[in-house]
Amino acid sequence: MQFSLDMNRRHIATKSPVIAIMMILLVANIGHTQQITDSLDVRSLDPVILTATRTQRQLSSLPVAADIITHEEINSINSVRLTDILSEQTGLITIPDFGGVEGVQIQGMDSQYTLVLLDGVPLVGRSAGTLDIGRITTGNIQQIEIIKGASSSLYGSDALGGVINIITQTNELGFYANVGHQLGSFNRQNTTSNFNYKKDQVGVDVFFNRFSSDGFDLVPEDQFQTVNPFVNYTATARFSYEFSDRVTASIYGRIYDENQENSSLLAFDEVLTGENNLDEFNLNFNANWQINDQWHSELEFHSTRYTLGSFLNYFNGDAFSSNEFVQNLTRPEIRTVFSPNEKNTMIGGFGYAQESVQRDDFISNPRFNSQYFYFQYDAFPLEGLNIIAGFRFDSHSEYNSQFSPKFALRYQLTRDLAIKGSVGYGFKAPDFRQLYLNFTNSHVGYVVIGRQGVENKLRELALQNELTIDSVNRLAQIIGQFNSPLKAESSIAYNVGLTFSPSKSLNMSANYFRNNISNLIETLPMARLRNGQNVFSYINLNEVYTEGLEYNFKWMILKNLDLKGGYQLLYSKDEEIEKEFKDGKVFARESPSSPVIRLKEDDYYGLFNRSRHMANLKLFYEVPSWGFDTNIRATYRSKYALFDTNNNTHLDVYDHFADSYFIVDFALNKLFFDNYLLGFGIDNLLDFTDPPNASNIAGRIFYANVHINL
To answer: What is the pTM of this model?
Structure first.
């Protein structure tokens, strides 16, 4: 979907995060005095996480920054797409990005630096740099695992900011089937069905989802809807077989298909209409062999194909433009786990990946090949001390080899208090677009060239007399600056935190993080066209950092009443720009009519589309004997800016900022006759919209849903 429909998030304007922060701290202090009871034992069970170490570990015992969104929480808030729930997590926010899709930031890192996995294998389709997570339905998700900080030591490229692993439901013993439907505002309709069967050695799991909407229009005065109507389908099937107690195998397939109306405005108010069509296919084969009590091996083969096609026609039906983006990924991997005893676990793996892309505005149809190897040692050398050390080596056909180490430790200081910390290296390889793009904007007239095509394209433009005389005279110098290959973007991530559990009813954690990103790939003008526009290409330029604090708590107030919350303080800045402010080289006006002033170091706000403060607060209540549960959830985001508005190219305190906001959502569910679950909810309870800054937010959403167990 070219513009992911996230209608579960809406805003209430406010000017300060003080209220949100005070609420969280107050709750934490009150919770500290809460007395524990035996009735809370079952509800305080520690969930198991796989993504952080690629082995099963209890979440609370991990030395790295990680979190889990459970199946129960996903169901209780009546979420429909992945975007519905990620923005409610501390340190995460889903935002519209390039190409009109929605990605997720982690700890202030751009969405292009978040690796998104489906059952441990990567999703593809970053046509404009950002992976659209709106195409992931929640109907068959078992849990979502989030790892914060650079994680290339296990997962390679794209894991600078972190990893999100979406784990789908697997076969359960016996027969189980259900169907469900949700109807909401803007004719949003979501239909799901699950079928599960397992007997003896055979297991079968089938899932289907249909999601559609009429879209919405935040600006009725213009000629277009903000989000156009769309419909998409997801179908998955998993077949598993147990050859023996020690040998199992499964094959999993997923098909995703989406169609969305497309429109654009040509000169003289002529409207162009067309469609965007997205098709995706994933196939995954997995074989497990428990050799003995100490050795376990796993073979995985993954193949995926992503196709995005779009076209626009004139009013009379004649073709105006069309574009197609096709990406293929094939990846076999073998990994082995060795556990000589309960205190030591080693995992190693190696694999091969082949990627290819076909795109109409590329200079060629590139194909990448890479080989990789990783190893990790997880040990408990002393009582209460856990150490994890690992590395990964990637050899790639198009960029320099990468060595990605990581080290983490956790020490249980007392029964209630533990300290943990990690440092890791992450990298992101230059993508196909940055290497092979050959794009000319037919309306404005600028040109963007991938790094591999700079020399040929510039010489072609010079021969066609399209470059200015100055650019022609400097042609050899310009080409020389772009002759060296692009370097992979890299990051060193630090996380240091405390966890405090004074009782079974209260858990708190605090984490300091710092991400230092080097060789950031930026778009840079390199030559001038005779029409006054620029020729752009990609270059390794800036070094940036994100730094801040995170705080989370979970308090079981009563047997069936939970309160959860979190807060993030974030600073994200470009070090070169920071130095320009410090040296007094940046100027601005306090208002359009005021004189120009020299800005100070403190006037530099940071990177665009980041908020200094974010917070969330969630209250869950259930009465199991009635089959009833309800919840109300609020998220807060402080002010942020999308553009430079005073023409000094940087974000300073005198630029225009979008107002801070609260998002409030409510859900209620009731089970009837053991098999019929009815739900009702209101998202964006106070009906806030902000078209210039949040075009993915539609307004207040009413919905109702029904699920039937067969």
So the answer is: 0.90
